[in-house]
């Protein structure tokens, strides 16, 4: 029995996708889905650039999930998966300029403007609690 590499990768990363979708974050898998959501979303938008790396598993996804337990959260919650949904990720990253591509990373937009961004280097050496605190501070500042 042979399994295609693509099928194998989809099966392997599904739990990583589920870490975010189970807490109410909507996946955007194509550039068209990104374009249908990000430019038209009113209010605040959280976009998580998901990744297979250890800092995404140990810090980023748990930190985001913890932050979403806060009493103030963004109006819209989205994620794209770097390295898997490449075109969707590239399209989403257009909204995060001037920041270079970074995965994982977390963006907060308000009325289409990037107001807070957490890059990979701000994730990989911090714990999930620190990332959650960073996000909840941003939520308090921009999402009220």
UniProtKB/TrEMBL annotation:
The lineage of its organism: Bacteria, Bacillati, Bacillota, Bacilli, Bacillales. Belongs to the bacilliredoxin family. Gene3D superfamilies: 6.10.250.2150, Glutaredoxin (3.40.30.10). It comes from the Bacteria. This is BrxA/BrxB family bacilliredoxin.
């Amino acid at each position: 029995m042979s399994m295609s590499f693509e099928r194998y990768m989809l099966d392997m990363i599904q739990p990583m996708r589920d870490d975010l979708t189970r807490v109410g974050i909507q996946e955007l898998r194509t550039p068209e889905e990104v374009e249908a959501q990000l430019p038209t979303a009113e209010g605040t938008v959280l976009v998580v650039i998901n990744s297979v790396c250890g800092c995404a598993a140990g810090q980023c996804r748990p930190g985001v999930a913890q932050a979403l337990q806060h009493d103030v959260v963004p109006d819209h919650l989205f994620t794209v998966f770097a390295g898997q949904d490449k075109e969707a990720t590239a399209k989403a990253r257009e909204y995060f300029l001037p920041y270079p591509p970074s995965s994982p990373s977390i963006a907060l937009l308000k009325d289409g403007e990037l107001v807070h961004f957490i890059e990979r280097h701000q994730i990989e050496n911090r714990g999930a609690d620190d990332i959650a605190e960073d996000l909840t501070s941003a939520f308090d500042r921009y999402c009220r």
